[in-house]
Every structure is written in C-alpha cells, then in structure tokens.
Design brief:
This protein has helices spanning 3-11, 15-22, 26-35, 40-60, 69-87, 96-103, 111-119, 123-134, 139-145, 151-178. The protein is mainly α and 180 residues long.
Amino acid sequence: MTDTEIIDSLKNNKYSRAVKGLYGILPYISRYIKANSGTGDDAKDIFQDALVILYRKVQDGEFEQTGTLKGYLYSVSKNLWSQELRRRKRIPAGEFNSDIADSVSEDEPGAGAANAAFNLLGEKCRQLLVLFYFRKKTYREIAATLAFSDENVAKNQKYRCIQKAKENYFTLINTVEHGK
C-alpha cells in the first residue's frame, strides 16, 4: 500500500485498512523504544498514539506530507517516547535534547532523522555536542565539564561524536527510504 493510498484511506475513514499499511514501521519504533528504557508494550502504545495523531491531522486537513509516512511516524513516536520518559522522570525536563529540539524545525527536510540520529548517540556525546554547538563552550570548558583529561581529548571526542551522528543519520535515512 502506498503512502497516498494510506492517506486516502484515512481521509475516507477506512482506518483499519490504513493501519494495516503502516504496521511495517512498528519493529523500528519498537527497537528504538527498547533501546531507550522501554518495553515492547510501550512501543505498541506509543505507535498507537502516533497513529491517532496522524489520523487527526489527516482528518483536520493539517497533514502535509514532506517525506514518507514511515519517517513521519518514526519521528512522532520518538517525540512521544521522549515526552513519556520525561513524564516518568527518567529524563529530567530541560535535558540536553530540548536544546536540539528547539533549534531544529520538524518542517525541515531530514529533521526527524537528524533528531533521531542525535538521540541514538550516547549521553556523553549528546552532552558534548550540545555544549559545543549550542552553549558555545570552549574545548577547555567541555573537558572540565565532562571530566576529560584535556582539551585535545574533548576535541577528538567531538569529532568521533559527529562521525557517529552522521553514521546514525544515514542509517536512518536509508532505513526509512528503503523500508528496511
């Protein structure tokens, strides 16, 4: 079933038909949620919530397709899961990810994949990148904050984190585009 057929089904209140076409993304969402302190049941709940959001946006005429539906649902699910983790207090409100989310518009092409790629990094990498790019800290300040031995270690680690983020991004883009 194509994205256009799914949208048409949602517009015509053929929800069950549309959902059947979308369930292929559930394993990717489940993998993401399980890797981020969740369970299979959490993934199913989040996925259902994402489907409801998609349905409402289509029904209200607010949905503008700029990418694949799989990419859209993945991004919505990722954001819903982040909210749920904050609610559960596993991630404090105002954590480093909010700096990224506030700076990247979801309307930009690839923004969902970029946010997801960032969120797949380890905590120390995310902190380092936020400190450098958003809080404009020097390598010396970063080394002190993150307990690196010196600023050269901070600089090398930043390079590794950027490489990992790029790798995550291209993996996600290829996964969504090719439906792997």
